[in-house]
Write a structure and sequence with these properties.
252 residues; mainly alpha; 82% helix; 0% strand
Length: 252
């Protein structure tokens, strides 16, 4: 079982790392991250501030733009390309199970997603090494946001996998995933817009608000609620993806 999953995982990773599109995505992603870090430094240079460079970085428009748009691009081809090219028929004859295919595609996309964020981690490590350790903050302030990025990214990638399993067109899959991700993101921001919302609704949106979660983790506070919420939602979406893929595979 593990050998089959590893073989499928290597197959998916080779598509990511040997594709020119992947490096185009990496190029533009690094530009957005670089701009986000530059604006964070510029904010701290304006005068004394209680913010660390980590807090400033993870609360810029460039950061949220990169975060929200990258997962649909990563996941749009995962299943849709299999159905479009007819390679799903090869998977049907191979000694692999449907859940192994779903798991390998999800893990490959998640690993590539983490690869995109690694250079930004170097920004903070170099910045602290040059003598500005106080501006970076404590260890929890540095590693907390990346832990949250892993969890939120896994959830977004699972939504992208679901969207890709529903269609044979990569563009449609990307748009569907973007609608899912942006819909959930802006739904949790209603509390910032609607002042007349009920206290219960405010509590619910505060529980799932990604901006609030990132603000908390970037201050070095590790809240256990997102540690449960995002993996649970990811598992649920992947379970739905598994059943959709299983249905379409046998229907094909």
């Amino acid at each position: 079982m593990i050998r089959r999953v590893c073989a499928l995982l290597l197959r998916e990773l080779s598509v990511f790392y040997f594709s020119p599109i992947a490096y185009v995505v990496l190029f533009f992603f690094l530009i957005l991250n670089g701009l986000s870090f530059w604006f964070a430094i510029a904010l701290l240079r304006q005068g004394p501030s209680e913010l660390t460079v980590v807090q400033a970085f993870f609360n810029t428009l460039f950061f949220w733009t990169a975060y929200l748009f990258v997962c649909p691009v990563i996941t749009m081809r995962l299943f849709s390309e299999e159905f479009k090219l007819g390679t799903v028929e090869t998977l049907m004859t191979a000694p692999v199970r449907d859940w192994e295919v779903v798991a390998s595609k999800f893990c490959a996309a998640l690993l590539f997603y983490l690869t995109l964020w690694l250079p930004s981690l170097l920004y903070f490590l170099v910045f602290g090494w040059l003598g500005n350790r106080d501006a970076v903050g404590s260890g929890a302030q540095l590693w907390g946001p990346y832990l949250l990025l892993l969890l939120m990214g896994a959830f977004n990638i699972s939504l992208g996998c679901l969207a890709s399993s529903l269609t044979s067109n990569q563009i449609v899959a990307a748009m569907m995933a973007l609608v899912f991700i942006l819909g959930i993101f802006f739904l949790t921001m209603i509390d910032y817009v609607v002042s007349s919302a009920s206290p219960l609704f405010r509590d619910i949106t505060a529980y799932v608000a990604q901006i609030d979660h990132m603000d908390t983790f970037s201050r070095g506070i590790i809240d256990t609620r997102p540690l449960v919420f995002y993996p649970t939602c990811s598992a649920l979406v992947l379970l739905i993806t598994y059943h959709v893929f299983q249905y379409r595979r046998w229907k094909a």
